Amino acid sequence: MSLFWIIATSIGVVIILALAFYAGRLLQQLSLQTKRQQQAEIAQQQAHKSHDVKALKSVIIITRAMQEEQCDFSEGCWRLSVLLDSLKLSSQLDQQFPAIFELYNEIKHLSILEDRKQLAKKQRMKEDFQRMQVESRLRPAIETDVENLKQFADEQVQQLSSS
């Protein structure tokens, strides 16, 4: 009977060792997978940071051009809205700079580029008048938003570049 217990114990030990080895391999794979996920997350954060720095530098250029009247408010707000919407690490900027987004939302349906060239002169003048009315109504608020946005973008670029 003692031979039976020796064999049973030996088989039990082999099974336990096999299971322990398998558990160790699973833990090793889990550790490796976790490391890869962390590296992917860091790489994604770096890519978002790089994208945001580039977009914010463009925002600074556009706001400066708007302040120096080298870019009209309609075009500037259009470009700024698109850039701000593309930021990965910032959100709810439409609430921080409402006049910029309001102008964009009021003119985004108007024709641009080739579509504008295809319009009849009367229709083009009608759209220009509509654009000028909205610009005129929102001008003081946009000037404030542009100044605040320039300061915000400068601070964000500085902060993202230093981290």
TrEMBL record:
The chain crosses the membrane at residues 6-27. Residues 16-149 form the DUF2489 domain. InterPro entries: DUF2489. It comes from Litorilituus sediminis. Keywords: Membrane, Transmembrane, Transmembrane helix. The keyword Transmembrane applies. It comes from the Bacteria. It holds the Pfam family DUF2489. This is DUF2489 domain-containing protein.
